Amino acid sequence: MKVPFLDLAPAYAELQAELEPAILDSLRSGWYIGGKDVEAFEADYSHFVGAQHCIGVANGLDALRLALVALGIRPGDEVIVPSNTFIATWLAVSQCEAVPVPVEPLESTCNLDPTRIESAITPRTRAIIPVHLYGQPADLDPILEIARRHSLFVLEDAAQSQGARYKGQPIGGHGDLVAWSFYPGKNLGAFGDAGAVTTNNAELAERIRALRNYGSTTKYVHRMRGFNSRLDPVQAVSLGVKLRRLPEWNARRTAIAERYQTELAETGLLLPQVPSWADPVWHLYVIRSARRDLLQSRLLDAGIGTQIHYPIPPHLQDAYRDLGWKEGQFPIAERMATTVLSLPMGPQMDEGSVDAVIAAVRAVTRE
Ligand SMILES: *Cc1c(COP(=O)(O)O)cnc(C)c1O
Questions:
Q1: Ligand 1 centre and the CA of 50: distance in Å?
Q2: Using CA atoms, how far apart are residues 367 and 360, in angstroms rounded to an integer?
Q3: Quick one: CA torsion of 174, 154, 115, 269, rounded to 10 degrees?
Q4: Of 16, 78, 159, 182, which is the most exposed, with the fewest CB atoms less than 10 Å away?
Q5: Which of 79, 156, 157 to mutate to test the pocket of ligand 1 (most atoms within 8 A of CB)?
Q6: What is the pLDDT of residues 258-314, one digit of tens each?
Q7: What is the pLDDT of residues 16-49, one digit of tens each?
Q8: Is the Cα torsion angle 249, 196, 157, 152 positive or negative in sign?
Q9: Are β-strands 53-57 and 195-199 bridged in parallel, bridged antiparallel, or unpaired?
Q10: By the 8 A CB rule, do 65 and 95 touch?
Q11: Residue 65 and residue 248: Cα distance in Å, rounded?
């Protein structure tokens, strides 16, 4: 039996009867940028995450970048980022000509280690970007407390965590701003690129609304030097249909993760660790193994697709060579890059596929 790492076609098939009339309506409306469909999704999504404002934008990287611009991040400012995140978190900082300052994650959760943040703060530090990696919330309370004490902004990168909860509260309104990606493979994914920012701060919301539209909220009046980064109605109606299904789809992911957690417990692999206050949404199910490459190739032989999130930490990418970071400076991120492996995970995975993954992982780890 073959189990692909990810196949998005079954998700489309499951919702096809609802999606296609909604998309056709939108196409026939004669309105293709902004408008009532975008506003309706923004209202639904802000309600879903418990924030007062939602601003749809073109993608997740832009959500982060517009958020940083709205916070007033300037060239030469420093922004604290996890050493083990997807590179977009860093790129958004660089696009403001600010400097990403890496802080290591906790080995246990792969999320920013709050005890390491203060030693990275300098007089130029302006903001902290915790990432809710793999769909698991970062430990926000101590991070917010440190930010308050040092007058720093908190921008959350929630690209992987639609529906996740921290101490019972949905991710979406803890920090000053929360950036979302609706890239097709995320838990809530569009049919192309899409993103959003949520916040409880009306002034920041208004600024991002202007920034996404050439710095303008009144036609041809430009308050600031903005961007073109808008969510289109076809994506908005699609996301609206999928949002209604998201809690159920996240629950299906959780059921699969629970099977992996119990049925792979004896394999000797390091399985994800979930703090008692976290309700993760399992965007990815990531195990760690010192024999990762062998495990991955043996699973491939057995027909099981896997991925590595992520094989090279940002500080060792050529894109950041000019910052002068060397191998060995962020050993936790570097060790994760060589040991992590993401198993197949998704709401449309059937029991037989989960059985096959578990059987194959057990067989390979018994060798
Ligand atoms: C996907 C992702 C992004 C970027 O989102 P895009 O919509 O692809 O631009 C940013 N941060 C993290 C952690 C992501 O996983």
A1: 21
A2: 11
A3: 70
A4: 16
A5: 157
A6: 999 999 999 999 999 999 999 999 999 999 999 999 999 999 999 999 999 999 999
A7: 999 999 999 999 999 999 999 999 999 999 999 9
A8: negative
A9: antiparallel
A10: yes
A11: 31
Contact yes or no for 111/138 (Cβ under 8 A): yes
Maximum alpha-carbon separation in the chain:
68
Q: Which residues is 55 bridged to in the sheet?
A: 197
CA of 88 to the centre of ligand 1 (A): 6
Rounded to the nearest 10 degrees, the angle between the axes of helix 36-49 and helix 233-263 is 30
Distance between CA atoms of 30 and 303, rounded to whole angstroms? 46
Looking at the predicted structure, is the pLDDT value of residue 1 above 90? no
Cβ–ligand 1 distance for 131 under 6 Å, the answer yes
C-alpha to C-alpha distance for 141 and 166, rounded to whole angstroms: 9
Name the strand (E) or helix (H) holding 317: none
- pLDDT above 90 for 367: no
Hey, what are 208's tokens?
A: 């991002």
Peptide bond into 183 cis (omega under 30): no
- What separation in Å is there between the alpha carbon of 117 and the centre of ligand 1? 23
Peptide bond into 260 cis (omega under 30): no
d(CA 43, CA 162): 15
* Structural domains of the chain ordered from first start: 9-240 (3.40.640.10), 246-365 (3.90.1150.10)
Please report which residue ranges of the chain form alpha helices under DSSP H: 9-28, 36-49, 60-70, 88-95, 140-149, 202-211, 233-263, 292-301, 331-339, 351-366
Residue type, 94: S
Structure tokens at 348: 């449309």
- Asked whether 339 lines ligand 1 (CB < 6 A), one says no
| Atom number, ligand 1, closest to the C-alpha of residue 133 | 13
What's the CA gap between 4 and 119, in Å, rounded? 42
